[in-house]
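Dear support,

Our group has been running a series of protein-ligand predictions, and this particular one with 5-phosphoarabinonic acid is the one our PI (initials K.S.) wants archived with full inputs and outputs. We had some confusion internally about which version of the output was final, so please treat the block below as the authoritative record. The input we submitted was:
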Amino acid sequence: MSSEARRLDDPAAIKRGDPYDARHVLADFPRQCRTAAGLRPVPAPPAARPPVVVAAGMGGSAAGGDVVAACGAERLPVPIVVHRGYGLPPVASGRAMVVASSYSGGTAEVLSAVDVAVERRLAIVAITSGGALRERAARHGIPTVLLPAGLMPRMALGYLLFPAIAALRAAGLEVAGESEVAEALDVVETLATALVPERPAADNEAKRLALAIGDRLPAVYGGPTTGAIAYRWKTDVEENAKAFALSGVLPEMNHNTIEAWRAPGAGQMHLVLLREQDEPPAIARRFTVTRELIGDAAGGVSECWARGRGRLARLLSLAYMGQWTSYYLALLRGVDPWTVPLLDELKRRVGVEGASDGVLD
Ligand code: PA5
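Confirmed final output from the archive:
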């Protein structure tokens, strides 16, 4: 066993490397999801079915919208647009529904989206643990899902995802049925026991993935529906492990990024392919051929397979695997997986003043 693997199995080393106990938050994720699945907006939002949903959020708080959009894309006759930025796009008008998510409740872009939504008299649901978003929502009588505080937003995916599913269902848009939600909850529960630090590297897929990636730069590619989760892996590596990562989607990357793998730096990258059973044959074939063409150039290749049958379980299991993998990468690289000092400093300097000045409205 390598010294790195021993480090990931050593409780004292883990405790030293994770002073804020991120591991317990991650291990508790199944309970977070179960609690979140019971949360509903108060007061209840209007039941009218919107012709378009705009999910406004940034960073970790946009991830719930990404998963909802990926689930909805396969079955809903209305689009779910994930909006990352100030204000709202013109499509958010008339009978559109806006789901405004900010875990902290203090994110300037989301506050400005809410201001514009209020101005346009749109149906809004707010998802937050407090802050200015909670205040604004109370002031305007906006249906709000109030979340428990104290987590890092990127580790609150359950809280940001399941209430959004429920809010859309109440508006007649079912991105995941009750049985699919139940399956997703079971799948993350099973996965948690397989990925926690107590489970040794020899038998822990997330530790093995982190060890395989090592010092290399992970390039994470998903398929048409798992692409959003590949992006989530990238941002988790960036925020938890404080390391660069790339993400992309098949088939699109076959039409551009694939050429970059001929560059001299390819050997310093680690290819991670997010796969699922029963991929459409054309996509499965593209994964195979992509691996054949660039696998040798990469410093290493790993495949990570989704769990479960339903779309929601599959996306959530891959996202959860990415959370743990980036957590173990942080430990291997000797950085605290919890704190994000640059991100905090940037927010402090930029502030929320003038959140709605000169924005897309
Ligand atoms: O993960 C994080 O901490 C960030 O990506 C935040 O989610 C992002 O800065 C937005 O903050 P919030 O989620 O509180 O709206």
